[in-house]
Amino acid sequence: MVEIELPNTEELEEKRRNSFSKKVALFTAFYAVILAICALGGNNSMKEMLLAQQEASNQWAFYQAKNVREYLYRIEKDELETQMVERGDTMKPAVLKHYKAEIQKASIEEARLSKDKQEILVEAKKQERERDANRAKDPYFDFAEALLQIAIVMSSVSIIGNSRPVFIFSIGAAVFGALVTLNGFLLIFRLPFLH
């Protein structure tokens, strides 16, 4: 008669635990990859927000400088016109011609500066929109990072406690974290508590 050796139940239980642990470890590694992508998105969003704010501030400072120069030309033009009105009859033709030329130059510069200001204004507003878009993205990355870190901790706890419900909770947290990360990049939906 052939003897059949039955497997040891303790060995089978150990293999089942190892299989569960390997599966959870693989999921945990996947969570870590998503967390790295999320952190990269958050860091880039913050950098882009700060750069756009700096560029917008630079553009507004440039706008103010052009504005001051425009007003200085306007004041110069007004003073020259006032002097022409006050002394126009007594001025020599060469002096009158010089005054008119200076008024013309001041008018041209004033108009040029006004046009330049409009171009700068467009660029400053563009940078502010860029800043605001990145500011809107940043909280999603922060929230997603927290969810993914919780998922990693919970999956580690599920290995230690050999708990499938805790592992399922970690999957839920990771999926939600991945969706929020994706939203950080694309801004598909708004979560009111993040704004």
Describe the structure.
The protein is an all-alpha fold and 195 residues long. It is rod-shaped and about 135 Å long. The chain is built from 3 helices and no strands. The longest helix has 79 residues, at 9-87. 88% of the residues lie in helices and 0% in strands. Helix 1 (9-87) runs antiparallel to helix 2.
Number of helices: 3
Alpha carbon gyration radius? 35 Å
Summarize the amount of helix as a percent range.
Answer: over 70%
Order of helices and strands: HHH
Can you summarize the main beta sheet?
none
User: What is the distance, rounded to the nearest whole angstrom, between the alpha carbons of the first and last residues?
Assistant: 76 Å
What is the structural class?
A: mainly alpha
Instruction: Provide the residue-averaged pLDDT.
Output: 92
Care to count the β-strands?
A: 0
The geometry reads as rod-shaped
Uncertain regions spanning at least 5 consecutive residues:
none
Strand content: under 5%
